Predict the structure of SDR family NAD(P)-dependent oxidoreductase.
Amino acid sequence: MPQLTAIVTGASEGLGKSFAIELARRNYNLVLISLPGSGLPQLASYLRKNFNIRVDEIETDLTNAESYPGIFNHLGLKSITAHMLINNAGLGNWSWFEDKGTAFYKKQIELNVITPVLLTRLFLEQANTDTTSYILNVGSLGGLFVVPKKQVYGATKSFIRYFTKCLQLELSGSKVRISLLSPGGINTKPELLVMNNRLKGLSKATIMEAEDVARIAIDGLLKGKKEIIPGLMNRFLVVLNGLLPAFAKEAIIRSRLKLILKS
Ligand SMILES: NC(=O)c1ccc[n+]([C@@H]2O[C@H](COP(=O)([O-])OP(=O)(O)OC[C@H]3O[C@@H](n4cnc5c(N)ncnc54)[C@H](OP(=O)(O)O)[C@@H]3O)[C@@H](O)[C@H]2O)c1
């Protein structure tokens, strides 16, 4: 079978880096995208040395409008057709709405909403209609639950949920498979690791390692799963969310809010 090519956004660290390593193990050629100066060339050279794959790295700011056509122009010039797009890059926050400025929210909405929509549009334009193409949109359980201090982040992930579910219907007769990844907390960086280590009980049981999430996500994507929710506890919470009446959910959120306000 000829080697297929996957684009991974936000590949320099966290979940994106785990996606890059997981896909390299599965013999995919890679197009890795991250901000300049984030260590992408080092990751690319590690992957080239350790796996028999082609790796192209593109250092660009995905909130810059010129970055999207720039990526596909690069692929066109190198005669590369991408078969998989992993819309992973995203900007999170854990802060009261008033505590971040307008520039932060603008960047968060651009990276979490505009970037995956426009990359998906351009990816589909170049996709080979004779072979199966795959798109994985990285959402979050935060897009399903109302979580205080994640107001704009959660809203961007709700957008991704709606966008993905709608595209799944629109593309159902085609050779494009599109999956939504809805993870709970992931130990992707030191500050999250510290925060997650402080959790107890049920909340702690929802946390997963990035390598496991990446492996489960790629398995689900290739199987054509519509929504991938890694972790038994996270799947249980989603089922519970569907069963509880609205007033009970609001009471739980209010009690969590009280706890947050006290801490
Ligand atoms: N971590 C969690 O608990 C969790 C839970 C649910 C969902 N998710 C979702 O999973 C995805 C990955 O999260 P993560 O925790 O792995 O994030 P992360 O560790 O912050 O990594 C984000 C990646 O995106 C890149 N990036 C950031 N801004 C960019 C920009 N403007 N242009 C290009 N690349 C940019 C970063 O590059 P630099 O290294 O240069 O900054 C980095 O490679 C996100 O969509 C997030 O919402 C995460």
In short: The chain has ten helices and nine strands. Residues 10-16, 34-35, 38, 61-63, 88-92, 111, 138, 140, 183, 185-186, 188-189, 192 surround NAP (CB under 6 Å). Residues 5-262 form a domain with the Rossmann fold fold (CATH 3.40.50.720). Strands lie at 5-9, 29-34, 55-59, 84-87, 133-138, 176-181, 186-187, 208-209, 227-228.
